[in-house]
User: What shape does this take?
Amino acid sequence: MAIVYAGATNELKIICPKCGLEKKTNVFKFKDTHKRLKAKCKCGEIFRVELEFRRYYRKEVRLTGEYFFQGKDERGDILIEDISMTGIKFSTLKPHNISKDDSIELKFTLDNQKKIQIQTFVKIKWINDRTVGAQFINLKHFKQDLVFYLTN
Assistant: This one.
C-alpha cells in the first residue's frame, strides 16, 4: 500500500502502480474520516492508498542522543524514533520528569555522511510514558542540514 502525503493544501497526486497514470485530487473530505482508500484507475487497476495529512515528511530513524532539562536539573539518554522539519519523537531510556509544554534541550548527531551534530531546544507537545513528541523551537541554525537529511 502506497502512502501519499496530502500536505497543507490537501491536494495530492495518485499514481496507478500498473499503468503509471497520474491523477491530482483534493482529499480534504477524508481528513477526519478515512485514511486508507481504495482507488480505481481508468485502466481497471484497483489499488489502495494510505493518506497522510502531515505538512512535512516524517523520517523514521534510530539515533541516539541526550536531553537536558535545566528547569529540573535533569539529563538523560534518548533514542530518537522519527524526525521532521517541525518536530521529533524520542524515547527516554529511563523514567523522566518532563511534562507537556516544557522546553528542553536536545543534542544528537545525524547518521548521514557529514555526521552533523544538532543541539536545539524543543517544546514538549505530548508524552506517553517514556515516549515524547516535541516541536522544534528554532530551526535557524540547522534548517538547511535537516532539509538535506530528510530528502536523502
